[in-house]
Specification:
Elements lengths: L13 H6 L16 H4 L5 H18 L4 E6 L7 H17 L3 H34 L9 E5 L5 H11 L4 E6 L16 E4 L2 H10 L1 E6 L4 H15 L8 E4 L1 H7 L2 H6 L12 E3 L2 H18 L65 H4 L7
Parallel strand pairs: 1-2, 1-5, 2-3, 3-4, 5-6, 6-7
Helix pairs in contact: 4-5, 5-6, 5-11
Length: about 375
């Protein structure tokens, strides 16, 4: 067998080696969380989902938002004044040029005026709840109106709360043909989600009551998931109000579910159908007052933090963002972090080994919360 050259032997051509240029310095690659190609790829989906779970937690905690009353409903329902303007235009067009197209336009405009009554009712009810919440003693956490942040019923709810001088939340969703957050949402409390399931988590997790106005598939999705969670006791029971008996009794035959033995008769008590803001308040306010009594402060020290309500059940809390290092790498050099959790305060377990709950910091924030 022939001897093969030793490729690892040092070269003897030192002159040519001295003349060859030094290799160019390699540019440091971006950190994974600063690499947009990775973050936006399917491999970064878990990071994106976690971000939509924890960034709202940080902001809600900063603003001490503990309790919400959530409004569901169609984005297509216009305010009454705009609906009447559209009706007047449709009537003029139908009179000037009667044909099938103008007749259909007139019929739609008439339906829109009828539906606009729901916009005004949502606006009034949201204002009523906000004014009631502002009368609560400092020993309980206020209730804030929360919506999906869009137009229609969502805008009406935020508008009513804003007109009553209250703080109001908008949890928006990025859609191909959807507009931006409505202008009545409180500055700093508008959120934009990509994932429907994370948005629904935040809609439900702080909800102490829900009011569902007429709507389409999105409203039905949110409502029936909420009813499922209540039916299966995956969440504490909250009052659920369906506003508009004409719509709900025509669109959903709830009694047929019982007739076909798909739900129990008792499941129909999970919601109430009403037709006026007064009826809605009659169901909402007693339940919210009961919640206030059950979660009133019991320790004098709590009074120094008037927006810190006692948690509905004991939980381990996350680190507050104010305690976290501004540099994401800070505290990681030694491979450990205090409290047994990650620097972001998400996931993992606490120092005692107990599992953390993503909503626990909302229910029981540290005393130094900003």
């Amino acid at each position: 067998m022939k001897n093969r050259p030793n490729v690892f032997a040092p070269t003897t051509d030192t002159a040519s080696a001295a003349q060859s240029p030094a290799p160019a310095k390699i540019k440091n690659p971006p950190k994974a969380y600063e690499n947009p190609d990775f973050i936006r790829s399917p491999y970064g989906r878990q990071v994106r989902v976690l971000s939509e779970m924890t960034e709202p937690l940080q902001r809600l905690n900063r603003h001490r938002i503990r309790n919400t009353v959530v409004f569901f409903g169609s984005a297509r329902i216009a305010p009454l004044d705009k609906a009447r303007e559209a009706l007047a235009d449709a009537e003029a067009a139908a009179k000037a040029q009667p044909n099938t197209e103008t007749a259909e336009r007139l019929e739609k405009a008439q339906r829109d005026v009828e539906a606009a009554g729901y916009y005004e009712a949502a606006r009034q009810l949201a204002g009523d709840v906000t004014r009631w919440s502002k009368t609560l003693p400092k020993t309980v956490s206020p209730f804030y109106i929360c919506s999906g942040g869009g137009p229609g019923i969502m805008e009406a709810a935020n508008r009513g709360a804003s007109e009553a001088g209250g703080v109001t939340l908008g949890l928006g969703i990025s859609l191909p043909h959807e507009q931006s957050i409505n202008p009545y949402v409180t500055q700093g409390l508008s959120f934009e989600f990509h994932y429907f399931f994370v948005r629904k988590y935040w809609l439900v997790s702080l909800a102490r009551a829900v009011v569902a106005f007429p709507g389409g598939f999105g409203t039905m999705d949110e409502l029936f998931e909420l009813l499922t969670l209540a039916q299966t006791r995956k969440m504490p029971p909250v009052p659920v109000i369906l506003y508009g008996s004409k719509f709900w009794n025509e669109v959903v035959n709830f009694k047929a579910f019982v007739k076909w033995a798909m739900i129990d008769e008792a499941d129909l008590s999970l919601f109430h159908i009403v037709d006026t803001p007064e009826e809605a308040r009659a169901h909402l306010l007693p339940a919210l007052n009961k919640y206030c009594r059950e979660h009133e402060y019991t320790h004098p020290a709590d009074l120094s933090h008037p927006h810190h309500a006692n948690p509905p059940f004991p939980q381990t809390r996350l680190h507050h963002p104010a305690h976290e290092p501004q540099n994401p790498d800070a505290g990681d050099a030694s491979g450990t972090s205090s409290g047994g959790g990650s620097g972001s305060g998400g996931g993992g377990s606490d120092a005692s080994g107990g599992a953390r709950n993503i909503g626990s910091d909302l229910a029981n924030p540290p005393a130094t919360a900003a």
